[in-house]
Amino acid sequence: MPSDREGGDFIHYILFTLKIMNYRKILISSLFVNASLLSVSAQTLKDAYRDYWYTGVSVNQWEVAAQQNAKNEHDVTGFVGADQTADWAVVEKNFNAVVAENCMKAEVIHPQEGVYDFTLADQFVEKSLAAGMRVHGHVLIWHSQCPYWFHHDANGKLVSKEVLKKRMKEHITTIMAHYKGRVSSWDVVNEAFEDDGSFRNSLFYQILGEDFIPLAFQYAREADPTAELYYNDFSMNKPAKVDGVCKFFRPLIDKGLPIDAIGMQGHMILEDGAQEIISQYDYSIKAIASLGVKTFFSELDLSVLPNPYGFSGANVSDRFAYRPEVDPYKDGVPADKQAEIDQFWVDFYKMLITHKEDIIRLNYWCVNDGNSWKNDFPIRGRHDYATLVDRNNQMKPVVQRIIELVQPQRSKQEKAKKAKKK
Ligand code: XIL
Predict the structure, then answer these.
(1) Which candidate in 191, 325, 340, 404 is catalytic?
(2) What is the reported pTM?
């Protein structure tokens, strides 16, 4: 039996233990509460939408590596990058898929017949895979940023059907074999149609007619049967265009064309009208899904600048002259304009959420407003606000609203707290 002293000590000990346990309980539960609050407020776009689709972004070569080699500056808008590796942290934190903005295009990766330069693309793929991201390949067959040699012979004449088929096959097979098992999906053909739904008169089309499309998909499936294969185009909000694309693909898909998805670039212009853009894309998603394939947005951005030319495409060779009137937000976007932009993104996401089952990926084009191609296209030297990340690499406040569309815990908790206080 313990003595009094010992008994007292014993009771003390029990009380002390209970106290500690209590403290621990308080500590643990407060840690728990804090952690859950933290995890809610630290929620990112990629995490919030993990069960919906991949949330991706394009990266340029200077974000991947601090490359300053003049020979390796690849950007037809004339934008010359400096070290932007600081952007990479934003990419890793907020996105779970990536695509190269330029370095996998034919002019970079296959500049001369039989000569491949994988330097930049390898750096991009390795860095992205090391960060655990899904890598999408952009692009195999595209009339733009495609070197002269591809369609011409030594005398400058257009090559024959057979020669072009051989070149396409060799190009697709070599690139896809190089990235087999590392690049999960490819834009096999990009921008083959005009905005009215007719065929673009590209050199691929001039030489091979519409056959160049199914041929490209056939070569791609043979090259890597595990990769997903996509068709991709801009202005896909325009009913005439999406109808033309669907009309072409429907019979091919019915006959077994190896294609997994038809994608929409999604270069949007606020002046075209927020509700109109949203309802047009709602229609386009349904039209594509009716073919029995998935869809995605490959190059999302929203230009908020005036569009005095009625321009609404993304044809990279289109250019207009700079005038100060068309660059009104050099010092920032006024509050009412910002509210309009934010509301657009929220309403756009609300529409997309209703199509969750049909969408594979929402990919943004360019990491932040500062390095967005929209500052230089279709007019050079403007100040656009086309992305969800500001010029200081901060996610814009609207991102939290987008997150709360599918993760409403935080606002619920806050409302509950407010209600308690009343
Ligand atoms: C753009 C890049 O963002 C620019 O840096 C480059 O100068 C031109 O091309 N459709 C596409 C993309 O499929 O590859 C284009 O990217 C934008 C339009």
Answers:
(1) 191
(2) 0.88
